[in-house]
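Lab meeting, item 3. Inverse folding demo.
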């Protein structure tokens, strides 16, 4: 009985610690993910007024920018947290995989559920390139090795 109570208290503290770390470091990337979702959910009829996007192909640049920012923020969050070595050590892979998966899900959802919008494989490619671009931007801005444990 005593050991069970200790385990429950220890598990409760562990869960609270994970939640604190998650909120502290993941708040900004989650806000950015919400911004991306809002951008994806803008109805197509509202985007038709921006015909210059088609001419200049700014659409792909926007996809690249959104997902390079998302990948950058995820990488920064995983590197700066010190509670879980696994996330710190594998920050690059986790950031890129999460960015690519999120981009793929949003492209699918955009084509199926958002009014006047369609999925575009080239948008997904721009999302993927942006996910890797976030790593490069992090390297340039922070100027240090990405996988290190201090």
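The presenter then showed the designed sequence:
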């Amino acid at each position: 009985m005593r050991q069970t109570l200790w385990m429950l208290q220890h598990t409760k503290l562990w869960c609270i610690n994970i939640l604190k770390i998650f909120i502290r470091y993941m708040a900004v990337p989650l806000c950015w993910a919400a911004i991306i979702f809002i951008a994806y959910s803008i109805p197509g009829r509202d985007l038709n007024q921006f015909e210059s996007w088609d001419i200049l192909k700014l659409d792909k640049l926007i996809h690249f920018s959104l997902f390079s920012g998302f990948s950058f923020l995820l990488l920064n969050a995983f590197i700066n947290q010190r509670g879980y070595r696994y996330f710190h050590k594998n920050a690059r892979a986790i950031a890129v995989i999460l960015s690519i998966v999120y981009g793929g899900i949003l492209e699918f959802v955009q084509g199926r559920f958002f009014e006047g919008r369609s999925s575009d494989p080239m948008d997904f490619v721009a999302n993927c390139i942006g996910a890797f671009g976030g790593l490069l931007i992090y390297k340039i801005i922070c100027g240090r090795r990405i996988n290190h444990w201090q």
